[in-house]
Amino acid sequence: MKLYIIDIREVEKNSRVGERMFAVVGRQRQEKIEKYRFDKDKLRSLCAGALLCLGVMEWDEGELDFDLHKVVPEKVNWEMLPAFFDAQKKDVSCDYGKNGKPSLVHYPSIHFNVSHSGDYVIAAFDRQPVGIDIQEHRQLKDSTARHFLTAWELEQATMQAENGNREEILCRLWAIKESYVKLTGEGIGKPMKEFRVNRQSCQIEDEKRQPIAGFVEKLWMENYYISVCSF
Fold first, then answer.
1. Each residue's pLDDT tens digit, 128-155
2. Domain boundary assignment for the chain
3. How large is the angle between the packed helices 15-24 and 80-88, nearest 10 degrees?
4. What would the CATH number be for the domain defined by 2-128?
5. Strand locations in 107-223, DSSP E?
6. 112 with 125: CB under 8 angstroms?
């Protein structure tokens, strides 16, 4: 598995780099970017497309690295990407499942998933299905948390809270649950209370408490919570 993260502000402040990135992401992504109304959404989509191209080009079937690689847009030779895909006579066009989960048309053995929050876009690549989510720290009231957490999860959050970090735990749980529904491709069609997060075992469990997936948590810049989920 390989993880990439990019700060959209670094693209926002350098229009020349943004233009180079736009030129390499492919027509399908370009059309998607152009449909967005707000500049921030355009930037996020652009960065997602750029990470997708970079992840495919650097993909190594034997990659066991689980580090989080920060992409510095100004230091990437974006011009080499078109040459790579032209040589392979392939591109990064995607098909979308019934709930919108993307898959690569020309690279079916590479599984990927993308997420964004705040100023960051993150992407995961693996040999098997993967789901990833990033959440910027924010206030989550119990009334909100009860909509996506089971009673057991709320109880566990209270027990695990130390030094008033209950909000952090709730945000982490939200990221983990999001990464799972992105893994399965069910998206918002999957009721969040049909499964639960066991942070002690780092597993997702079904209603019978049987493990159905595993996850890994990461912290980024102290106030971004990342979860990567796989079977």
1. 999 999 999 998 878 889 989 999 999 9
2. 2-128, 136-230
3. 0
4. 3.90.470.20
5. 111-117, 120-126, 130-136, 196-198, 203-205, 211-220
6. yes
